[in-house]
Amino acid sequence: MKKVFFSLSVVALLTAGCYKDDSGLKNHIVIDKMSWLRIQPEANIGGGAYIWLLDGEEIADAKDLLYVFAQAGSYSLEFKAINETDESTESFTVTVNDKNCTNGITRVFEYLPAPGQFINEMPAATAADTPETMRQKAEKALTDGSMISLGGFGGYVVFGFDHVVVNREGADFTVLGNAFINSAEPGVIMVSYDANGNGLPDDEWYEIAGSEYNKSATVKNYEITYYKPETEPVVSHETNYIRWTDNRGQSGFLSKNTFHLQSYYPLWKGDSYTLTGTFMEANIYDASGNGTNWVNTPYDWGYADNWANNDPKAQIDIDWAVDKNGNPVKLKGIDFVKVYTGNRTEGGWMGEISTEVSGFRDLNLLNQ
Ligand SMILES: [Ca+2]
Ligand SMILES: [Ca+2]
Ligand SMILES: [Ca+2]
Ligand SMILES: [Ca+2]
What we know:
Blueprint: E1 5-7, E2 10-11, E3 28-32, E4 36-39, E5 42-44, E6 49-54, E7 57-60, E8 65-68, E9 73-82, E10 87-97, E11 107-112, H1 131-143, E12 148-149, E13 156-166, E14 173-176, E15 187-192, E16 206-208, E17 219-227, E18 238-246, E19 251-256, E20 272-279, E21 285-286, E22 294-295, E23 321-322, E24 333-341, E25 356-357, E26 359-362
Parallel strand pairs: 3-10
Antiparallel strand pairs: 1-5, 2-4, 4-8, 6-7, 6-9, 9-10, 11-13, 12-25, 13-24, 14-26, 15-16, 15-24, 16-23, 17-18, 17-20, 18-19, 21-22
The structure holds calcium ion (CA) (4 copies).
């Protein structure tokens, strides 16, 4: 007969600002809402099963528990270890405290735009800037309600929050931009959670598979390299401005337009750099026929800077996330979001399609 050996160690960790330790009462866990509860039991059942029950309902069937509560309250949690001959149960009370969470971005981890007509201006940059000072500038903008531009294809920002964005039933969040009717500049959204508990976005990323994800014109793992121009153009409109090459044997130039005369190449970057992601064919067309009215219609769903911020079609469901092989994943919540420009195109005088980001709205935190 193999007895269940059983002991538990409770580890509750979460993103900065939302942490409360065990209260000291036996098997009483105190945690804030929208914070990860991590329990890593020491248990050895010699082949068998583990089940976690929350108020009597199964929430996990693995030994380690990772869970997040969207609502304050008192919950009963049970851990069962079962083998052929034995069963052992450990019961907990979980007190989930209410907490004021910021409904918006609280941290920017990285900002690396592609070249574009708003680069070095939104936010402003000089040759003295570094990746770190640009990260700080992007963080200041996005925590102040200002806007940043990601430039052309592949330019990105990675940001986070003071709480876990919980995957509830239906839509969970909106990435805020400046899309309006016929002016979509779709950005691909990736999500991640702090699997290793270190507070940093160094864990696996999952792509939000929006309406274009499975289309035949969409290119996964697209790579583009941008080359720093040797000089800035002397004419006010230069079509052979910034050279690019891609991993499909194509090459071309970004143009400089008459409305934006600063350098479009990030001043803090070296001679060339490569950006990657899912490439989507742009919807852009010239509605006037004479080059005066460029229109980029939105994709159906699943992107940033695509529909207006208050349009329900701008809302994202974490359940749309897929892994790098395209398999759907079930995430309980997310800590990190990456957004990058998903088109590589220009509309004449209007310049390139470049995703803008101005903030983030956690739909769980509305009406609370
Ligand atoms: Ca959801
Ligand atoms: Ca991490
Ligand atoms: Ca733009
Ligand atoms: Ca935009």
